[in-house]
Amino acid sequence: MARIHSQFYSILVTLIVTSVSVASQPNVVVVVSDDQGWGDLSLHGNSNLHTPHLDQLAADGARVEHFFVCPVCSPTRAELLTGRYHPRCGVFSTSSGGERLNLDEHTMAQSFSSAGYRTAAFGKWHNGTQPPYHPNSRGFDEFYGFCSGHWGNYFSPVLEHNGQLVRGNGFTTDDFTDKAIDFIHDSCTAEQPFFVLLAYNTPHSPMQVPDRWWNKFANKELNHFGTRKTAEDINHTRAALAMCENIDWNVGRLLDKLDTLAIAHNTIVVFLSDNGPNGDRWNGQMKGRKGSTDEGGVRSPLFVRWPARISPGTVVKQNAAVIDLFPTLAELADVPRGNSKPLDGQSLQRWLFEPDTPATDRILFSHWNGRISARTQRFRLDHQGQLFDMLADPGQTNDVANRFPHEVDRLTVAIQDWKQDVVPDRFGQDDRPFTIGDATAPYTQLPVRDATLTGNLKRSNRFPNCSFVTHWQQTTDQIRWDVDVLQAGRYRIQIYYSCAAADVGSRLQLKCGEAATLPFQISQPHDPPLMGAEHDRVVRAESYVKDFQPLEVGTMSLAAGRQTLLLQASEVAHQNVMDLRLIMLTRVDD
Fold it and tell me: Cα separation of 88 and 68, whole Å?
């Protein structure tokens, strides 16, 4: 009798705890990896690597079999935040302003913040740098990471914390996880629910990973290869796999922290990647990689664990996409969306709770660089008008358009209608200036990535995201930013520069509009070496970087409104003026 009574008491306590847990607001953690393909998990059959924590995350909750994101980074992040297709949101590029999320879009973080959640984003943002495009202006109380599309150094780089530039601590993926864990701990101490976006910047290039992870793969014989084996860079693949195992380890650390804090039961944990793999490596033999609108370019893992409500081993057959995550998480957490704009996504709650719910034959669209493909439960119509039976032919090797002409017609019309509805007529023709002086943020960062160069100036690389300006040798050379000063007033100006001792002495002018002019001189040398090659596992395509130093150049009084911010040398003392990474403007109280 005593044993029966004990069992009954145990069951009663469990029911009470579960009831209380379900009744309270669940915490939410969304983990997004960068350029990790669907095939970069041992769960999906890739024996080249071992991802036990992510595999277990999928087993402990729900796995969505066919989940689709965008072909590249910034569009996926925009769709995750808004539940709307990225062309509606103004995102058409991955750099130079085209990555920015329109200011009239409402984000998932804003909804959770309005519902009483502590909100934070750690890692890569990639939807706008200058407030009010900055994550702190889009619903996140806390931000630590970088806003650019990629970063040039993964070992203790310069990052930012709520707009201020700071020095990172160790390997970025480890560092971002540490910060997320600290935020979760503090939220528990404050007894407040939290919403965390943990956006890793790996395995995006440059291919940097600590020795602990690389040593296993440095000389590893691989068992699985991409569909274009002759095009596969084996060392690039090895580095990517090492980075994916590091991601898995960090996700494991995060999950362990939830267990230690006794909050795992009522915490929703989501894992996905932002696009297909960034190399010709094994990806389930699917066609396409990052940048492609074919299956391999847009299929991503999606795991959703919520022990309080989602049964272990749940498999969702319903086709789903990143546009579905905002409505899904809002419904799961009972958070009002607070958005008057219609969403393109739908909530997946019914399939997460009842996976046997029949699937609907919705059409999902993938778009990039003018290419559009459409995906149903069974078919994909690619951007060339070829039709593939994805159930019988996941590698898209056999065009079945002649066998299913009605399906071709249906999806062709659907693509035309979608394009007319979703893609603006002037899509890609950006007239949005870069903002300065948002009332809610004291700092505005203007990287040269966002500038227009005239004369003989050069970027350090054709990929502008983490580049700097060099070859500055003439007084006719100009760096121009199209800006909108949102709040008139005085601004403290710093430039992040490098200059060899032999070149010190050039004089410059910073002008904003017709009235504001600030003359200054490069009076101190700062000549750090290029960094990156010493950590790269394969030769990079992006720019190498420097440890740029801030130089205080004075204050300017800026008038409100749209104008040109122009930096130009008035006197070139020697061969080169300087190399420039960015300008930082800080609003000064009068």
Answer: 18
